[in-house]
Amino acid sequence: MESVCMTLNPNEDESPDKICQFQDTQLNTLFSENYIPVNCRSSLEGVWQFAYQNRFRFTGECNNPEAQIKSCQTAGTQFLITNQKFNITYKKCPGMTGTFDGVVEYSCLGDWFVDKNHFFAVANTKESRKDEKYRCFLKNRDDDLYIGVSITAECNTLQT
């Protein structure tokens, strides 16, 4: 949930007009520890090969043809259950320290739009540390080639 932190007096109106008056303030991202996954189709669907960058770990772009994002239903499975998760398979790039081989499975928690930006929140299904479990992704509706991923559980730091 993205929301401004605010305290209302007991007799104050909780209407959308009251809450939305703070639209230009910094937003905080809140994640439920007891989340219920949602269908990922509105955020991601399909299989893609991808290249990745992480300016905090390495310089340049790792473009391994085996790196893959997979978000699609498995034949013969229940539609709603399998579409609540997606996998990102990272592959090491030769000569690039900081790149790695690994698979991360995410559960979709929800998505929202801010202008042309499409945000979606996820939980790493194999991570127990709260500060590492939750992430945000960002797509721009004008450019389907790039997806941003937060390095913390904050959505307000992402840019396209």
TrEMBL record:
GO biological process: wound healing
Pfam families reported for this sequence: DUF7042
Superkingdom as given in the UniProt entry: Eukaryota
Domain DUF7042: 39-159
Protein name from the UniProt record: DUF7042 domain-containing protein
